[in-house]
């Protein structure tokens, strides 16, 4: 059972470049989330989804976009990367919004 | 606004001793769920314990237990018989069923 799979694990971007962080889960979870983790700041919610075709903004959505065309996949798109987007990104899923979060292994992104 | 506060950025404990990590939260909801997550240097997020707010009994998982004070909006984590493998960042989290909110974390050092 793979759980939540994130790719890539590491990435360096130049300012202004774009990229997509991939996230897929094989647990048939309805709820999926994208967080960013900055040193000393905990985890901040970027976007979340409560089911295929439904997405909503979290605390820090600016500069990001998401889509949820299937239950399994929840990609995060960065357009026009900026140094402020240097962070560790985590994808997570949950059976429903009250159960434990299952996390991916994270993506270390640097924007230089 | 929903907030989670961890007032101890760093804590240390002697191996085999007991340590308590503090967490307070702010909410106007009556039904919610609280969590403690552990993040070792591997970066993987691991669920330590979960508490349902409607349950008065404090949750326990082996050496980990919580002191849940609903009126005070306090949710502390007690680690008994601390082991070297307990060294990690610990995050308190809260959800009402959609978004999960995380505190800024407490870095726990275990001294041999």
CATH superfamily of chain A: Immunoglobulins
What is the H-and-E element order of chain B? Answer: EEEEEEEEEEEE
In CATH, the topology of chain B is named Immunoglobulin-like
**Helical segment count of chain A:** 0
Overall number of domains of chain B? 1
Strand content of chain B: over 45%
Mean pLDDT of chain A: 94
CATH class of chain A: Mainly Beta
How is the biggest beta sheet of chain B arranged? Answer: 6 strands, mixed
Q: Kindly report how far apart the N and C termini of chain B lie.
A: 41 Å
Notable characteristics:
heterodimer, A: 112 residues, mainly beta, Immunoglobulin-like, 7-stranded mixed β-sheet, 4-stranded antiparallel β-sheet, 11 strands, globular, B: 112 residues, 6-stranded mixed β-sheet
What is the topology?
The complex is a heterodimer of chains A (112) and B (112).
Chain A: E1 4-7, E2 10-13, E3 19-25, E4 31-37, E5 43-51, E6 54-57, E7 64-66, E8 76-78, E9 87-94, E10 102-103, E11 107-111
Parallel strand pairs in A: 2-11
Antiparallel strand pairs in A: 1-3, 3-8, 4-5, 4-9, 5-6, 7-8, 9-10, 9-11
Chain B: E1 3-5, E2 10-14, E3 19-21, E4 24-26, E5 33-39, E6 46-52, E7 60-61, E8 64-69, E9 74-79, E10 88-95, E11 100-102, E12 106-111
Parallel strand pairs in B: 2-12
Antiparallel strand pairs in B: 1-4, 3-9, 5-6, 5-10, 7-8, 8-9, 10-11, 10-12
């Amino acid at each position: 059972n793979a759980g939540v799979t994130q790719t890539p694990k590491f990435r360096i971007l130049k300012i202004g470049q774009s990229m997509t962080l991939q996230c897929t889960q094989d647990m048939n979870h309805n709820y999926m989330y994208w967080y960013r983790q900055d040193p000393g700041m905990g985890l901040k919610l970027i976007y979340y989804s409560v089911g295929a075709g439904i997405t909503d903004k979290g605390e820090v959505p600016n500069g990001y976009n998401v889509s949820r065309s299937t239950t399994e996949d929840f990609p995060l798109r960065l357009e026009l990367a900026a140094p402020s987007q240097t962070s560790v990104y985590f994808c997570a899923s949950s059976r429903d919004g009250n159960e434990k979060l299952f996390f991916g292994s994270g993506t270390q992104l640097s924007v230089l | 606004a929903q907030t989670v506060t961890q007032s101890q950025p760093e804590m240390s404990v002697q191996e085999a001793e007991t340590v308590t990590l503090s967490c307070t939260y702010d909410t106007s909801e009556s039904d919610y769920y609280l969590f403690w997550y552990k993040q070792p240097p591997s970066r993987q997020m691991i669920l330590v314990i979960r508490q349902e707010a409607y349950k008065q009994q404090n949750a326990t998982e082996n050496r980990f237990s919580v002191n849940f004070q609903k009126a005070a909006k306090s949710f502390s984590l007690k680690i008994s018989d601390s082991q070297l493998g307990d060294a990690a960042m610990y995050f308190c989290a809260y959800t009402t069923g959609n978004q999960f909110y995380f505190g800024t974390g407490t870095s726990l050092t275990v001294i041999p």
